Amino acid sequence: MEMHKYLFSKRFLTLSVLTIFLFSIPLLLIYGYYSDTIWLGFKSWRNFGFTLVFYAIAISIMTLSKVIIYKYQSLHRLTLVKFILWVAVEYMALALDYLLLTPAATDYEVPISLSLFLKASLCVTLIIALPYAFLCLGASYMALKEEFDAFKAGIAANENKDRVTLYDYKGEPALTLRADAILYMESQDNYVMIHYLSEGIEHKYMLRCPTQKLDAMLEGTSLMRCHRSYIVNLNHIYEFVRGHKRADIVIDNKDRKEISVSKSYYKAFITRLRNT
Predict the structure, then answer these.
(1) 128: CB partners within 8 A, 6+ apart
(2) Where are the alpha helices (DSSP H) in the chain?
(3) Strand partners, 241
(4) For the segment 234-267, what is each residue's pLDDT rounded down to a tens digit?
(5) In this structure, are residues 186 and 229 in contact, taking their beta carbons and an 8 Å threshold?
């Protein structure tokens, strides 16, 4: 079972660090009140100082973890088993962070032991489990909504001869749209965010596919690459500002998205635009 793609977008990974951090503060205060081994808190300046050190290291660990998993999933298939193992490693790293700081934070009053490690692991589990659960639910909702919107757009596209079918990295059809419904495409590492119109409303679809493979799929349509990271629909250009070997495009969507035409694609893009 492959994990939801939205769970590993930059937005969700950044949000996970922030959510876990904010959620942990009240939980630690409550948990620490009933535990004689939890030293995190704000009882004294010393206590506060070690708490800040713990959080600084913990946030660094989580940030590094998110960077690694983002790079990994952009190149490999991330299954549920791999995801669970990754979360387990995060648990242990954060528990170890707490464990190693404990002697200095408590003046060796709380000795390092297997029992302390298990209690720290339990505390970390409580802190991380709920935010991860909410984030997974959020990612699932976004993925299901995206698929439903794409399904409706696909039905409309099948009634139109001028349609485009986009394939994922496995070569399987993922999205069928009317060519004129696509506004632009934005590359995000090994994913492409498709911005398209359906029933007059702009939608997004995250397609796992390198942008290089899209060129063949879009041949013969009004969609053309203008930048290494962007493909635009020539029929949805609201404004075109030409400069010296460069240009800027404004898409005719609600937000008036601005996209640059890079030097590498400038000449071919201008030629195509003149002939449109």
Answers:
(1) 20, 87, 90, 91, 94
(2) 10-33, 45-75, 80-105, 114-157, 211-217, 263-274
(3) 248
(4) 999 988 887 776 788 899 888 889 998 888 888 8
(5) yes
Angle in degrees, 0-180, between the axes of helices 80-105 and 45-75, rounded to the nearest 10: 160
pLDDT digits (tens, 9 = 90+) for 106-141: 776 667 777 777 777 776 777 777 777 777 787 777
What pLDDT is stored for residue 149 in this prediction?
A: 79
Q: Which 8-state DSSP code applies to residue 4?
A: P
Q: Which residues pair with 192 in a beta bridge?
A: 187, 207
The one-letter code for the residue type at 59 is I
Tell which residue, 144, 99, 97, 137, has the closest CA to residue 118.
Answer: 99
- Using 50, 70 and 90 to split pLDDT, how confident is the model at 37? low
Question: Which residues is 177 bridged to in the sheet?
Answer: 164
Comparing C-alpha atoms, which of 270, 1, 274, 11 is closest to residue 142? 11
Which structure tokens are listed for 8?
């590993």
Q: Write the DSSP symbol of residue 79.
A: B
The dihedral region occupied by 220, where left means phi > 0, alpha psi between -120 and 50, and beta the remainder, is: left
The answer to whether 258 touches 241, Cβ cutoff 8 Å, is: no
Distance (Å, rounded) from C-alpha 167 to C-alpha 141? Answer: 22
Report residue 212 CA to chain centroid gap: 21
Q: Determine the length of the chain.
A: 276
Q: Rounded distance, CA 144 to CA 140, Å?
A: 6
Is 250 in contact with 256 (CB distance < 8 Å)? yes
Choice between 207 and 142, residue whose per-residue pLDDT is larger: 207
Rounded to whole angstroms, the Cα distance separating 269 from 242 reads 11
- Copy the structure tokens of residue 189: 């590492």
